[in-house]
Amino acid sequence: MTTDVLAAETRARPVTGAGKLLLFLLALVIVVIAEAIGNVSIPVGTGKIILLPLLWALLLGGAIGLLSPRLPPPLRLSGAMQNAASAYLQPALLIFIAKLGLLVGGSLPKILASGWALVFQEFGHFFGTMVFGLPVALLLGIKREAIGATFSVGREPSLAIIGERYGMDSPEGRGVLAEYLTGTVFGAVFIALLAGLITSLGIFNPLALAMGAGVGSGSMMAAASGAIAAQQTPEVAKEVATFAAASNLVTTTIGTYFTLFLSLPFTIWAYGKLEPILGRHRPDAAGPAPAALDAPVHEEARIGLPETVLAWILIGAYGLIGNWLTYGIAPDRTVVAGMAIIVGVVLAGYALYLLCGRKLPAVLWVSLIGMALTYPATPYAAEIAAMTGKINFLALATPILTFAGLSVAKDVPAFRRLGWRIVVVSFMANAGTFLGAALIAQFFLHAPLG
């Protein structure tokens, strides 16, 4: 049975309780294996690439999804279960965001002292995709698909913007879909490898790279900031997580408006100027025909509030396991209390999200509550920071990438039908948003490298 047939047969079936139990058991096994493997360093010229547990988790999850058609039925990761894994990504991300918010609160004075670096690096995020990706797209013979593929990193808001303006069957729609699928399948792996390699060269201040990691995607931010932090001292690693979280929060909150009113119009203008120069005598379209691409799968399993709360508790427990295996911190009473605070921040933030009619993203509320609890002027901020500080943020990133990996196989059939040129362009756009922001932040920081 092929991946395409399996997805088609199972997508319509609701995932059962037993299926969700199997999903969490698989996630537990993957987390344990990934954390047991630990960090693996690979020399690359004068630099190096560090493969973190979160990357092993992503790769193991993806492998299980791809091999599922050949596994016995009780162990098969059906399309419905892959959709459920995608649905559980949001709870996993909120646990991670809560931890980052608690880190950010104590460092708010330092973040504010960074001044223009944090403000202007956002221009790198939103224009870097076009600056790095559009010329390459035109040189490869891609036409208007290049607009959709390079005006942003192509997450869900970008699909909505292009879909409303051009329609998903348009060249621009095919371009943003290619960027979306490439980012879904390979984005976290690519950005982690790139961030780790650039960090090892010692060219950038690690805080500039941290701001570059805040690309607006939770899983990609976790992967990139983890790769950067892995090469720092424990204190600098915490600062990397803090600045990555602050940058990602800014990118997430203003990103839709920025891409709609600035990035997309500028990319359209740049395409009109550059296409006659770089794209002359190229084929009229390099992307596949409209019918050749499947729309991205959004048929996620519905999970109720009680089930979501249980997911937060289990994901927190997985984080404690990783914290123990990789960082040697046993889950004693203080550590468990720290995790309880993190889960409590998520619950409070999600409650505000619901009370406010879902008008602002839950990520924003969770981040604000976490920051408020550890802000130096808050009562007991030092005690809360001490308890939650015993939990390494990388240990919480591993479950995120586990569920991301378990969900990617459903997108592979559509991904296979993408032309290789549009995939190269997508990688360039992802590299552009990271490097563009890091370059601008480096300019404004005026801090010694290290």
Short note summarizing the structure:
With 450 residues, the chain is an all-alpha fold. It is built from 19 helices and 2 strands.
Provide an overview of this structure:
This protein is mainly α and 450 residues long. The protein contains 19 helices and two strands. The chain has a two-stranded antiparallel ribbon with strand order 1-2. It is globular. The N terminus is likely disordered.
Which descriptors would you attach to this protein?
19 helices; two-stranded antiparallel sheet; 73% helix; mainly alpha; 2 strands; 450 residues; disordered N terminus
Q: What order do the helices and strands come in, and which of them pair?
A:
Elements: H1 3-11, H2 17-37, E1 40-44, E2 47-51, H3 53-67, H4 79-106, H5 108-113, H6 116-139, H7 145-150, H8 156-165, H9 171-200, H10 206-213, H11 218-229, H12 234-278, H13 305-327, H14 333-355, H15 362-374, H16 381-389, H17 393-408, H18 412-416, H19 420-445
Antiparallel strand pairs: 1-2
The total strand number stands at 2
For the residues shown, what is the average pLDDT? 83
Discrete helix count: 19
Biggest β-sheet strands, sense, barrel: 2 strands, antiparallel
Q: Give me the oligomer status.
A: single chain
Q: What structural class should be given to the helix and strand makeup? A: mainly alpha
Element string (H = helix, E = strand): HHEEHHHHHHHHHHHHHHHHH
Terminal Cα span = 52 Å
Shape: globular
Over all CA atoms, what is the radius of gyration? 21 Å
Strand order of the largest sheet: 1-2
Strand content: under 5%
Q: What is the helix fraction of residues, given as a range?
A: over 70%
Identify low-pLDDT runs. 1-12, 282-298
